Amino acid sequence: MGKRLITQARGAGGPRYRAPSHRYYGAISYVKLAKGTMKGEVLDIVDSIGHTAPLMVVLYENGDKALVPAPHGIRVGEQIYLGYEAPVQLGNTLPLRNMPTGIPIFNIERYPQDGGAFIRTSGGFAIVISKEGNQATVRLPSKKTIILNADCRATIGTIAGRGRKEKPWVKGGKRMIARHATGKIHPVVSAVAKNAIDHKFGGSHRRSFGVPTTTSRNAPPGRKVGQIAARRTGRK
Question: Which of 47, 87, 110, 218 has its CA 20 to 30 A from that of 209?
């Protein structure tokens, strides 16, 4: 029996493709607060292998703890605020309706009180472009704009860890170690270089004789390889 394709192996679920979630520091989420404003203190700034950005542990005055991405410039022991009347300053979390336009924000909620969904990687930030009624328009780092409920919360500032991708790898060994640490397989062997039993395009020395390289959009894992739902192939 031949080896499974990567898509098949991931679906089967094995230790090689399973996320090491037991090593994660915790899940990122805001404290649910229906009304009012709450003060908190930054207890610690930690690293988690499941996140590219450093995280800050916040203890609020009601005893709740939250784990959220740390903004650039925050320090342990600083006081931050969460709520509708929180002041507009670094590290504070408040609804989009109360934020001035043009200010950088991160960890934006998709729906009110969901805990945060957008902009959670190191160095990332979005900008509030406009507000109208119960909606707010936000520009993401990809230059794409989205319209959200004005009651969705976000944190003011830029996520720490900026420039993480700017450092060169220099040599392949470092890249291999980094890829293996995230659970990715590196290097990746091309399909035509594999044996015929291991892939649809394998065998016959870098040629896929008699095997069409186009496949359906609805093909199952293991057959969904090559040119997915190609509109046309070949030379014009």
Answer: 218
Q: Distance of CA 229 to CAs 8, 29, 201, Å?
A: 19, 38, 17
Residue 213: name the closest of 186, 233, 236, 190 by CA.
233
Phi, psi at 144, each rounded to 5°: -80, 145
Whether 207 shows a pLDDT value over 80: the answer reads no
Q: Is the pLDDT of residue 2 over 60?
A: no
CATH class of this structure's domain 21-164: mainly beta
What is the spatial distance between Cα 132 and Cα 109, in angstroms, rounded to a whole number?
A: 18
Do the Cβ atoms of 49 and 35 come closer than 8 Å?
A: no
What dihedral angle (degrees, nearest 10) is formed by the CA atoms of 167, 50, 189, 201?
Answer: -130
The DSSP string of 178-221 is HHHHTT--SSPPPGGGS-TTT-TT-STTT--TT--SEE-TTPPT
Predicted confidence (pLDDT) per residue in 100-156, tens digit: 999 999 999 999 989 899 999 999 999 999 999 899 999 999 999 999 999 999 999
Domain 1-19+183-236 listed as CATH 2.40.50.100: no
Report helix, strand or coil for 43. strand
Contact 70, 55 (CB under 8 A): yes
pTM of the model: 0.77
Phi, psi angles (nearest 5°) of residue 188? -100, 125
Instruction: List pLDDT tens digits, range 103-114.
Output: 999 999 999 989
Place of tokens 């190609």: 230
For 197, the token pair is 């039993």
